[in-house]
Amino acid sequence: MQSVFAFRAEADSRRQSLELAAGRSAAIARARIEAAGVLLQTLGPGSVGLECAQRLADVRARLPGYANLIRFDARGRVACAAATTPYDTERGTRAWFQSLRTGAGMVVAAAPGAVYANEPAVLAAVRAGGPDDFQGAMAAVLTLSELKVETANRYMPGGAEVALADSTGKVFAATNPEAFDTPRAGWRETASRNGSVIWGGHDAHGKSRSYSAAPLVEDNVFVILSAPAPGIMSWASINPISRVALPLLAFVLALSAVLYAAERGVIRWIVYLQRVAAIYARGRFTVRPLQAERAPPEIRELAATLDAMAGAIVTRDASLMDSLAEKDALMREIHHRVKNNLQIITSLLNMQQRALADPAAKAAMNDTRQRITALAQIYRALYQGPDLKRVDLRPFLEELTAQLLANDMSTSPLVRTEVHADPLVIDPDRLAPIALFAVEAITNAQKHAFGPQGGVLIVGFHVRGEEAELSISDDGPGAAESLGGGVGRTLMTAFARQLRGKVSFETRDPRGLTVRLVFPTPQA
């Protein structure tokens, strides 16, 4: 900000210098033109005759600064001249000449209508003759350099250019025409009223420049100065040490000191405690932040808090693990006792079955015993498995199938079993209807599918994306109609509805029956 303020102050100083230079240049040029007018009035009466051209040439040689001295007659023709004068048939009708004819004592022509010099110049002319007798004009051609409008003095900024503009604002003479562009509106009125004016703009190449103008001859001719307007970066390159380099160096040093102090005193210890906290997040609470003993007091207090927190977590975890182990032991004991009670019920039903003489009653008793056996198998799988809330379905189906067939091995023919099951871990609430459905299907196969020669029982469980399928197939002569409308088929339909699935009974080719249960795959 200090550099910006200094740049603005220096820019204002440059603009003021440019405005002063414009006024000074206009004053010098105005004095030069007035001196030319006095000279022309002095030469006027003697500038006719045979020796006119020679006298004018001698005066031009003795008084350097004039490109040409010319005597015009009343019709605008050249009577004599100190140097070659361009031919102009319309000179007598030119505005500046007509102004002299109508009584003006002196005019400065910004655009005289012909090129009177090989470089930018103005034409200063005085009236010849009396008030009522117009005899022509005496003219002096003053170039831009002869007007002493200098661009290299202590008032002018570096790279300044100078130009002359007419009353319409059009630049007709300039040291570098590309340095001047269309001036802003209203500059002539301001310059005439205040003596000078300054504004900012762009040159023909689009570069920023400052302009200043002052009237040279009343409101007819103006001096315009143009100087580059440096930007903040170019100005900084001029004053690299005092304005930019030292403040930036001080800032960098201060920032480096702050960063070093923060790194040594805070950041590295925060990073160290971060690593310790990450170790704690992975469950390793035996690590202690011993290196923090060399840290600042606040960091040591934070490290001590982390250490105490880790110790409290270890103590709490040990208590929770003990409680969880006790809970697991109690749950396993409960499942074990439930399984034993169901086995007692199964044994009682088995004894009652042997005491019955009615075959239908025996069959009904056997079906009930098989269902209770399936429920007991669930509780056995829970307390013997690694998870008290989940059961792996594949070994459960294998063991359930084997147990159901083994219970009737003494009275039933030999049956070969094949179990093809995908692994799936599910909760007991969903396992119970699946197990009871399998019991009903396998019991039905034992009753209707296998003859004296035995047979093959195929149990399959497959997970296919969002659906799971349990199928139980036999190779007996039975068909779907053999199920009738008994309790088994009713129970299978109820279990399928409980699982939000559907059950189907399909006759196999060439023989056999497949009971298929399709239901949404339980979440693992």
Polypeptide structure, described:
The chain has three domains: about 1-230, Beta-Lactamase, CATH 3.30.450.20; about 240-310, no CATH class; about 395-524, Heat Shock Protein 90, CATH 3.30.565. The protein has eleven helices and 17 strands. It has helices at about 1-45, 50-60, 95-100, 185-195, 230-240, 240-280, 295-355, 360-385, 395-405, 430-450, 485-500, and strands spanning about 70, 80, 105-110, 120-130, 135-145, 160-165, 170-175, 195-200, 210-215, 220-230, 390, 415-420, 425, 455-465, 465-475, 500-505, 515-520. The strands form four sheets. The protein has a five-stranded antiparallel β-sheet, sandwiched between helices. A five-stranded antiparallel β-sheet has the order 7-6-10-9-8. Helix 6 runs parallel beside helix 7, helix 8 (about 360-385) packs antiparallel against helix 10 (about 430-450) and helix 9 runs parallel beside helix 10 (about 430-450). The chain is elongated and about 175 Å long. The chain starts with a helix and ends with a strand.
Mean pLDDT: 79
Overall structural class, as computed from helix and strand content, comes to: alpha+beta
Number of helices: 11
* Inertia-based shape: elongated
The CA-CA distance between the termini, in Å, is 67 Å
Number of strands: 17
Series of H and E elements: HHEEHEEEEEHEEEHHHHEHEEHEEHEE
Q: Main beta sheet: strand number and arrangement? A: 5 strands, antiparallel
CATH C-level category of the largest domain: Alpha Beta
What is the share of helical residues?
40-55%
C-alpha Rg (nearest Å): 59 Å
Residue ranges: pLDDT <50 for 5 or more in a row?
none
